[in-house]
Automatic annotation (TrEMBL):
Entry-linked InterPro entries: Pyrv/ketoisovalerate_OxRed_cat, Pyrv_flavodox_OxRed_cen
The protein's name in its UniProt record: Pyruvate:ferredoxin oxidoreductase and related 2-oxoacid:ferredoxin oxidoreductases, gamma subunit
Entries under SUPFAM superfamilies matching the protein: Pyruvate-ferredoxin oxidoreductase, PFOR, domain III (SSF53323)
Gene Ontology molecular functions: oxidoreductase activity, acting on the aldehyde or oxo group of donors
Domain (Pyruvate/ketoisovalerate oxidoreductase catalytic) ranges: 32-113
This protein's record includes keyword Hydrolase: no
UniProt KW Oxidoreductase keyword: yes
Gene3D superfamilies named among the record's database cross-references: Pyruvate-ferredoxin oxidoreductase, PFOR, domain III (3.40.920.10)
Keywords: Oxidoreductase, Pyruvate
Source organism, top-level taxon: Bacteria
Pfam families for the chain: POR
Length: 227
């Protein structure tokens, strides 16, 4: 899958067949403080509510402040419990370092949204929503549309008018940049739960009979301690 035919915004895509495509691997990278966690939270919340199987994790610098971070997603038509190790189908760079590090790791039909694309999204957020921070919500809409999600799919889930407008704006970018449905997947998850690794550890500890927990106050596992 690695190698040629990488695509940036504005280039014509060769669409993969749904029969062959069963999952999509995404990487969103940037600097601490650029809202990466917010992107992950909104994207995974909507994927869960739409009925998609996914696994998400993150790599971040061991610093009190700053540093390059990466949020990684594997969205699939069947249950997944780890990253696949396959080339990235979508790389989103909120900084220049992301593209430098991962552009060469794109799959054959992969999408790279560079810093120039991000700046165009930020400009739209500032012009139409009067807040550049809304660009991350627009980006979530774009990524959902790449996976085949449409505004009709979101109609029953998103009731806030402004939030829906932001997601639709992102879908418009995907259409304009010829990315819409590039890695379309079927939502096949039923009777599922969404929780993070900290919560999984907490559940396992409780089921195993744990009655006492002590922790070091750095990157605190809040959800473990709240169970």
């Amino acid at each position: 899958m690695q190698g040629a035919n990488r695509h940036d915004k504005g280039q014509t895509a060769r669409v993969c067949s749904k029969e062959a495509l069963m999952e999509c691997n995404l990487l969103v990278g940037g600097q601490a403080g650029q809202g990466l966690a917010s992107i992950e939270n909104e994207l995974t919340d909507l994927l869960f509510r739409l009925g998609y199987h996914f696994f998400a994790t993150k790599f971040y610098m061991s610093r009190i402040r700053g540093g390059h971070n990466e949020h990684l997603f594997r969205v699939a038509e069947e249950p997944v419990h780890a990253l696949s190790g396959e080339p990235w189908d979508v790389v989103v760079g909120l900084d220049e370092e992301t593209e430098r590090l991962h552009r060469a790791d794109l799959s054959a039909h992969g999408i790279c949204i560079s810093i120039d694309g991000i700046r165009e999204i930020e400009k739209a957020a500032k012009e139409h929503f009067r807040n550049v921070k809304m660009s991350n919500n627009i980006l979530v809409g774009l990524l959902l549309n790449v996976l085949g999600v449409t505004s009709e799919n979101l109609g029953a889930l998103v009731k806030e008018e402004e939030k829906m407008a932001l997601l639709v704006a992102g879908m418009d970018f995907a259409e304009r940049w010829k990315m819409a449905g590039r890695f379309a997947l079927m939502p096949r998850a039923v009777n599922t739960l969404k929780f993070d690794g900290n919560s999984a550890l907490g559940f396992g500890a409780l089921l195993g009979g744990c009655q006492f927990v002590a922790g070091y106050p750095m990157t605190r596992p809040h959800r473990c301690r709240c169970i």
